[in-house]
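Form 7-S
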Amino acid sequence: MAGTKADAARAEEEQPRKKNLRLHQSKIDEAKAILDTTTETETIETALDLVIFRQELIEGVREMRGANLVNLFDGE
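Output:
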């Protein structure tokens, strides 16, 4: 998955920290299959990136609300 500008900035600023979490293995396994990742860490990192990206999309749509958009395909 391509990273966002926030991902790049975050990678430069901070190193990963070790965490002890209680997670359902079945959810990790399913997410790993869906995301086609190889490790559990990669799976969780990718899932978190997707949550952050989703929020960025929501904020972008909210900012566009009320904008005067032009239909470039009008007449096709």
